[in-house]
Design brief:
Protein name: SDR family oxidoreductase
GO molecular function: acetoacetyl-CoA reductase activity
Shape: globular
Radius of gyration: 17 Å
Keywords: Oxidoreductase
Bound molecules: acetoacetyl-coenzyme A
Organism: Pseudoalteromonas xiamenensis
GO biological process, one term: poly-hydroxybutyrate biosynthetic process
Number of domains: 1
Order of helices and strands: EHEHEHEHEHHEHHHE
Helix content: 40-55%
CATH class: Alpha Beta
Strand order of the largest sheet: 3-2-1-4-5-6-7
């Protein structure tokens, strides 16, 4: 544990989350894998097994990231147990796609709470400690659709764009303390979330991607690992897009 960085990854059991956990373990991290409070230790064991993850390098944290008090309590316990956290990856996210005309308040609120309010809940309890230690890497997983907007995703695009504004603002506050705050904005990636899309819609989007393929979770995870590493020590407030050319800013 001595030489390992302590990392927290939310949405750890998801497509991109799993790849991030594996990549951070490769980069000498001990990872606290945050999964929804509905998951169990049996789910964690099955996940380790399925993805061949070294069980000595990862522990589960079952937290509802939309529950501010639960996050505050769980992260206070983390600091008590591990002393500090070096890296926070806010990756948890959901979709509730619908044209805006048909979008319900619950579709709006669920997405804003999970994808955006979770950033407050997870980052606030750790940020002061990172500043005091003069080291921190905060990486927020946004989306190409937060950058360019997307038909049927007013809720998701709002949350994902909000993550970028949050990251730039916090980057100012962390800079003097060597706490960097960056965003990775993936395009359409080979995950269960994208696999759940309507086939015709996905096919039409794929056809618009200059690289003519989806991203792999590994490609996204490598960008996260880079921003978490010493190689990215002077990068803050930046958004690193991985979208195969779908949107060039
Ligand atoms: N631009 C303009 N018009 C469009 C359009 C577009 N991109 N897409 C559809 N329309 C039109 C349709 O042609 C249709 O017009 P008519 O009524 O004249 O036929 C009308 O808008 C309604 O469209 P749908 O039939 O698609 O409406 P629906 O209610 O059946 O489905 C939807 C709505 C579920 C949102 C569907 O449009 C959809 O799946 N959209 C894509 C959403 C998307 O990209 N999600 C990404 C999920 S993965 C993810 O989010 C990860 C990430 O970060 C990238």
């Amino acid at each position: 544990m001595e030489n390992l960085k302590i990392a927290i990854v939310t949405g750890a059991f998801g497509g991109i989350g799993t790849a991030i956990v594996k990549e951070l373990i490769e980069e000498q991290c001990f990872v606290l894998a945050v999964a929804s409070a509905k998951r169990t230790s049996a789910d964690f064991d099955a996940w380790l097994n399925e993805h061949q993850i070294n069980p000595t390098k990862v522990k589960p944290l079952f937290i509802d990231v939309t529950d501010q008090i639960a996050c505050e309590n769980a992260l206070s316990d983390v600091i008590d147990s591990y002393g500090h956290v070096d890296i926070l990856v806010n990756n948890a996210g959901i979709t509730r796609d619908s044209t805006f005309k048909k979008m319900s308040a619950s579709q709006w609120n669920e997405v804003i709470n999970t994808n955006l309010n979770s950033l407050f809940n997870m980052t606030q309890p750790l940020f002061a400690q990172m500043c005091a230690r003069k080291f921190g890497r905060i990486i927020n997983i946004s989306s190409v659709n937060g950058q360019k907007g997307q038909f049927g995703q007013a809720n998701y695009s709002a949350a994902k764009a909000g993550m970028i504004g949050f990251s730039k603002a916090l980057a100012y506050e962390g800079a003097r303390a060597n706490v960097t705050v960056n965003v990775v904005a993936p395009g359409y990636t080979e995950t269960p979330m994208v696999a759940a899309m309507r086939e015709d819609v996905l096919e039409s989007i794929k056809a618009q991607v200059p690289m003519q393929r989806l991203a792999t979770p590994l490609e996204v995870a490598q960008a996260v690992a880079y921003l978490a590493s010493d190689k990215a020590s002077y990068i803050t407030g930046e958004t690193l897009a991985l979208n195969g050319g779908l949107y060039m800013q």
